[in-house]
Every structure is written in structure tokens, then in C-alpha cells.
Write a structure and sequence with these properties.
Blueprint (H helix, E strand, L loop, with lengths): L2 H4 L9 H8 L1 H9 L4 E8 L4 E7 L2 H9 L12 E9 L2 H14 L2 H12 L1
Antiparallel strand pairs: 1-2, 1-3
């Protein structure tokens, strides 16, 4: 498949220059500078005795949102602490892992992950 086919028709025909740029070493370095890390995290509130599983790019900013009541599902408490994190190279990978953990619907599994992380 050529590059010009992957561009929507609204943008018109793409010249060979862009196709060459896409494959250049410079472009690869340029893309890697903007690749972000994504995290799956488990937080725990002692006051509500609950765990919460989520994914984000910036854990510290996300915890601030949880602890200031700006998150719908965690506004019941303001003492959330990070107990577990996993790092991923893409958001889709992080979302798959988050769903995998949530799909188990098991507090024991979450506590197992937290315990393994502490060891």
C-alpha cells in the first residue's frame, strides 16, 4: 500500500517528497521524541477500603485528580495511594492490560499484584 492511499481524499494527492520523508531516519527520530509512556495503575483508599484500576500518561497528575474529587468513581475518598504500576509503550497496550485486570473482577487478584509489586 502506498502512502498516498492512506491519506484521506480531502488532502489531495500526496507527492513523493512526503512518502520519502515518512521513511527517512530523521522522521523516525522525530516520531520517537514524541512517543509517550502509558501506565496501568492500581490505587487504594484506606478510608473506603477500595481499590481502583486505571491507565494514564502522568501518574502524579492523575493521583492529584483522584485525591481532589475530580474523578467520578474515586471521589468517595481523598486518600488514594499508588500501590501498583505497569509501564507500556502505547495507550492501546495499557488499555488492554487495564481491561484484563478489571475483567477478572477479583480483589484477590489485585491484592496479589500489589503484593508482588511490593516484594
Amino acid at each position: 500500500m502506498s502512502f498516498s492511499r492512506s491519506v484521506p481524499k480531502a488532502f489531495g494527492k500526496v507527492t513523493g517528497y512526503y512518502k520519502g520523508f515518512r521513511d527517512s531516519i530523521f522522521h523516525q527520530d522525530y516520531r520517537s521524541a514524541f512517543l509517550m509512556e502509558y501506565f496501568v495503575y492500581i490505587i487504594y483508599s484506606e478510608s473506603s477500603d477500595r481499590y481502583y484500576v486505571g491507565q494514564c500518561q502522568d501518574i502524579s497528575e492523575r493521583i492529584k485528580r483522584h485525591n481532589t474529587g475530580r474523578s467520578k468513581y474515586t471521589k468517595i475518598a481523598i486518600d488514594w495511594k499508588v500501590k501498583y504500576t505497569e509501564k507500556f509503550g502505547s495507550r492501546s497496550e495499557a488499555m488492554i492490560r487495564e481491561k484484563d485486570i478489571k475483567r477478572k473482577k477479583s480483589r484477590k487478584y489485585i491484592e496479589f499484584l500489589v503484593k508482588e509489586n511490593e516484594a
